[in-house]
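Dig into this one:

. . .
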Amino acid sequence: MTTETLIRTTPMPEEMQLLLSEYPRDAWAEHPNFKRATEQWMGAHQMFRKLAAVNRTETEAYLDKSRDPDDFAGRLSVYGNLLVRNLHGHHHWEDHSYFPELSAADPRFDAGLDILEKDHEALDSILDDFTRASNRVIKLIQLDEAAARDEAGAVHKIASSIEKLLERHLTDEEDLAVPIILHHKLRG
């Protein structure tokens, strides 16, 4: 199965956006129920977006030969690892703690939470592909730099897929979760 087939392209169903119309995104930060925990959770999402972009752009720089191979290997190792480890941990916490809390507060949105959990499964698969491809390129840089450059295209493709999935998933996740949090005064 290719990474493209795993990426959800359909928007969150309209009925899952019921509270979003009542609590629009541009008013969240000023809402009295918008607490530090929610701000930190959204901050983690921003970090994931940035790390995904860094991995993609670093691979582009290597592919266009504006990034030294050893420098690229070091950067891919650090930033790829940060992205993969932190996303796995974050999604594990959401699936086992955060989503059950949201479901208990407002079970009307369980179908949306199920969609987000399926996104997590798809992302886990893509992250595994990214880890394997990245590790291969990092090893090849030391053994056969020409082969590494050939295989870096796969890393770029997967990194682009991660970025694409995260953009849809994280926005949908925020648009579903934050209105529930605000409405039910959670996470305070």
User: Anything to note?
Assistant: The helical segments are 3-6, 18-22, 36-63, 69-105, 110-143, 145-184. The chain has a mean pLDDT of 94. The chain is about 80% helix and 0% strand. The CA atoms of residues 37 and 187 lie 6 Å apart.
